[in-house]
Amino acid sequence: MEISEEVVIIGAGIAGLATALALKRVGIGSLVLERSPVLRTTGASISLFPNAWLALQALGVAHKLTSIYSPIQKGYVTNVATGAIQQVSFMGINGTNNGPTPVHRRTLVETLAGELPPGTIRFSSKLTSIQTVTMDDKVSSSITIISLDNGTIIKARVVIGCDGVNSVVARWLGLTTPVNSGRSAIRGLAVFPKGHGYKEEVHHFIEQGKRAGFLPLNDKELFWFFIYYNSSLKGEETPAGPKLLQKDVMENLAKDFPPSYLEVVEHADLATVTWAQLKFRYPWDLIFGHTCKGNITVAGDAMHPMTPDLGQGGCSALEDAVVLGRQLAKSLHPNPNGHGRIVAVDAARAIQGYVKERRWRVVGLISGAYLSGWVQQDGSGFFMKFLRDTIFYRFLFHRITDLHYDCGKLPSVSSLSE
After folding, report:
1. What is the CATH number of the domain that holds 128?
2. How many domains would you assign to the chain?
3. Which of 266, 290, 354, 416 is 20 to 30 A from 26 in CA distance terms?
């Protein structure tokens, strides 16, 4: 079977769904290809900072989430070795709250998907190859031919890879493989049927080479995590199942952590417990590498995988979607037959505008996330303690997490037709 599409998005994660929604808002139809048979809703929670909420407002769905979830007001950082506790405020210099709002990942994904027209997502669609065919000797008018494992051939004017850390589209563009940070993370949800009793506060615990924490999603559920160095693990080796992961945290990795943290892990919903290596892309690969070729580009983790130390992976993916929608809207021309709009031959220029706008923003986030993880988790000597407790938490933390970056608005369909 052979079909033609204006825009094809590879991957129905947060980046892919948000991009499809942004394109819908500006009058561009798209097809989202997802290799899984159903919507991928795995992952316990995602923290949305103010910049993510601005992107969700532009996408028109922020109000569906703000009525359910509340932002974190402040945090406490406990030094496991000494027992010292330091309070961290999320209030910015201008009096605004810079704190994260923890959201169920399932809820966010389902909210984005629910805004898309029926048939936008095609499940069980695995990409096998990508090739471009230049029309009239013009790179900007090239057509991309996508082959799927079921024999389907798709001709697309624009292809956007939102297929995650191990992106096929990123490899096709020539971006280097994301590198292992040397750390792994175990995450999950803790459920307290009678209520956990915690306010809108995040609790962090640090020890040499280890960092953990928990924060509430609602009055009965807490998101928890444990990040540690995994130099003994090789390649993609994955530890045992959820029950043994929980046991390893409680009886080995975090056995010296405060009882409050161990109690949270003990209440884990095993269906939500996951393990993953933390990877990132070298910033200079985004500066000097190819993040687009003609009408093909990447977004989300496919473009800028980063460690979770700033909580900006999902937030920046939402920003990508809005910028892509706004830039591609510039390439729209009226369809002569009156049935909507088409992506014009200058879509390549629009994609270049997207890459130019996003490159330095995500380079800064990748670098900031790595620095944040290094300062908070590396070493226990006097210098590192001074850098972390006196410099980072007191002076730098507010500036790094003052994430009110505005990725902009999306033009309305009516304004584009004028």
Report:
1. 3.50.50.60
2. 2
3. 290
Instruction: Report if residue 254 sits inside a domain.
Output: yes
Asked if 221 and 329 sit in the same domain, the reply is: no
Do 118 and 40 reside in the same domain of the chain?
yes
Same domain membership, residue 107 and residue 221: no
- For 405-408, which contacts have Cβ atoms below 8 Å and span 24 or more sequence positions? 405/51, 405/54, 405/319, 405/361, 406/51, 406/54, 407/51, 407/54, 407/55, 407/58, 407/318, 407/319, 407/322, 407/323, 408/58, 408/322, 408/323, 408/326
Other CB atoms within a 10 A radius of the CB of residue 340 amount to 13
Phi, psi of 382 (to 5 degrees): -60, -45
Cα–Cα dist 146/161, whole Å: 12
Which pTM does this prediction carry? 0.90
d(CA 103, CA 170): 28
Q: What's the CA gap between 298 and 316, in Å, rounded? A: 13
Angle at 50 between CA 115 and CA 210, to 5 degrees: 110
- 169-189 per-position pLDDT tens digit: 999 999 999 999 989 999 999
H/E run at residue 189: strand 179-191
162 in any annotated domain: yes
Rounded (10°) CA dihedral 282, 211, 86, 44: 90
Max Cα–Cα distance, the chain, nearest Å: 72
| Range list of H helices, 217-268 | 242-248, 259-266
CA distance 366 to 266: 32
Q: How confident is the model at residue 340 (pLDDT cuts 50, 70, 90)?
A: very low
Structure confidence by residue, pLDDT tens digits, 6-55: 999 999 999 999 999 999 999 999 999 999 999 987 778 999 999 999 99
Torsion sign over Cα 160, 166, 172, 173: positive
Picking from 251, 279, 307, the residue at the C-terminal end of a domain is: 279
Q: Are residues 118 and 223 in the same domain?
A: no
Domain membership of residue 96 (yes or no) is no
How would you class 97 by CB atoms within 10 Å of its CB: exposed for 0-12, middle for 13-18, buried for 19 or more?
middle
| b/e burial code for range 355-370 (CB count within 10 A of at least 16 → b) | bebbbebbbebbebbb
Same domain, 172 and 304: yes
Residue type, 328: L
Shared-domain flag, residues 162 and 125: yes
How many helices (H) and strands (E) are present in the chain, helices listed first? 13, 19
